[in-house]
Amino acid sequence: MAIIKGHRFEIDFDDAFPQGLVMVGEVSPDNEYQSREDKASGRPVRQRIDETTGKRQWKAAVTDPSEKNAKRASFEVTFLADVQPVPTTAEALPGMRPIELDGLTAEPKVAGNGEFKYQSYAFRARGFKTAASGGNSKSARPNTNTAGESTAKAA
To answer: pTM here?
Structure first.
C-alpha cells in the first residue's frame, strides 16, 4: 500500500515539539503571488485556500527551541481557518510568544538544495490551544530526567 503525495499525518503537539514553539511576529494572510502586471492593473490580492479542507490559509513564523540546527529551527506554520487565528498567550518578549497548536498535521517534504537535501515537514494547524493553566501541558513543565529529577539549572 502506497502513501499518496501530500498526505497529512495527524501528530500531537508535544510529540512534534517537546520544548514547545515560539511565535515570532503575528499571524498574517497567506496570499497568492501577485505579479507586477497584476498590481499595475489593480487586481485584488487573493488569499490562498487549502485544497483539502476548503479553509483560508494563514501563516506565522515560528522557532523550535529543541532544534539543534539553527538554519532549521525557524519555519512557517500554516493555519487553516475561516477567520484569522488569535494566539492565546501573552508575549514573553516584544514580538515573541510561546504557543501551542491545535489540530496539528505534518506533511513530509524534501528540503535543501543540490546534494544537501534533507527530510522536512510542512506543518498545518487549525488554531491555537488555550493557554495551559497550572502547567498541564508537557511543554509547560520543566525538563526531568528518568529519575523524575528536574534538569533545569539553578540561578
So the answer is: 0.79
